[in-house]
Model the fold of this input.
Amino acid sequence: MFTSCDLDINEDPNYPQSGTITADLMFPAVQNAIVAVSCDVMFNYAGFFAQYFDQMPGANQFNELAELTITESSQTIDGAYSRLFSGALTDIEDIKTKTSNTADLFALAVMRAVAFQLLVDNMSDCPYTEALQGSSNPAPKWDDGEIVYNGVLAELDAAEQAYNEKTENMTMTDMMFNKDMKQWIGYANALRLRMYMRMYDKDNSVKAKIVSLVNDNDFFDGNVMLDIYSNDAGNRSPFYASYYALGTGNHCAAHPIVSYMSATNDPRIEYAISKTTGSGEYVGQMTGAKADMKGFGTNKTWENKDVSAINYLLFDESGITRPAYLYTQANLQFLIAEAKYRFMNDENGAKAAYEAAIVADFNARGITGVGTFLSGSNVDWDVATDKLNLIYMQKWVALFYMDNMEAWSEIRRTDVPSLSRYTGKEIYEDASVYNAGEMIVPYRNGLEAGGLMKRMFYPQTARNLNKNTPAMKPGSTPVWWDVK
Done:
């Protein structure tokens, strides 16, 4: 029986008993489950919250996400929560009983940290100290996110120390790094950096750890991703398989991302956004407005042809086999740039990392023209008056359609892009009041306190099965590290 913190899933008699499966075969399932959650369910709703996506005028599947009318009963996170706990995290606990190899255990600690960070960044808290005890504790308490963050960071330190004391070769099949322990250590350090940057506004004492990590510069090369997909049924890239394989076409581009990429003459716009079939221009739909507003410059309601579809060549081989990203080199370099600028008084180093981040993103997307782009007046480091804001804005662009979940988290942490003072209706009626790239309160907004989505609701599954699930919190309530 697979049992998680508050799930009870009956064993499939056609599925092999866990005791008969070796650690070597189980670890790929852990990696795939975590990647699928981040690059499928979370990728979708975070794309709306980061104002990359809006709902196509002629479709209705994601109206709740576009208009922020989701509730706990919408069960938006339930599938991801179940897959992480009853899949990845339960498998990790099982694998730990089957191997004593220090390299294996370190890789398991890294993936466990990734899973718990995703849970905390969504809901602020989750079962941790009493989680994954199976039938001996089917209703564990939920821990504050700060406890979870500090807990998995301590686990990473302990696992790395054990590996350093007894260095071994990894025995498990590894679809991410092909058993390269230098890459695993670099990934762990990048996770530490990301978590400490999240923690800083709540706990300034982590500054020394941020500076130490950046000075050591012991991070992964390339991108952390799964690049294993094919056009075989059941082996397609996660987001494509879930949302585009049937050709439903629910997603169009949102006004904020289109306006900013257009204003900065960013050639990456062609990677994931199509020109409209009507005007032949890039047009983003006003957030949460498809049911109430008319097409730009017209007196008729929005139609699919009036807005830019989310594309990235979705319906050909490049979309079907596209890698699924857990941590991009661009995001890492932007974090380094921020740390050097904010905490280390190293503007030259910050500029180098900022430009390296943009180059890395262009390369990952296969887009040319990065030199010309970097010299543009709106993105040129040397002429920018607010360099920290420039780092954050370009990170928002670089995370678009690469790691939407990370983008939503970084928007909440940095408050960039900033929120426009004007409503979508006011911006529609007078475009001059809007600064390209600003977030916009959705025209229809279901949040109790208004504004933007700050957290995901607790799973209805947990509510039904675990009496210790906390009382519901509105989506406008910040997570623990979002203290600005």
Notes: The chain is about 45% helix and 5% strand. The mean pLDDT is 91.
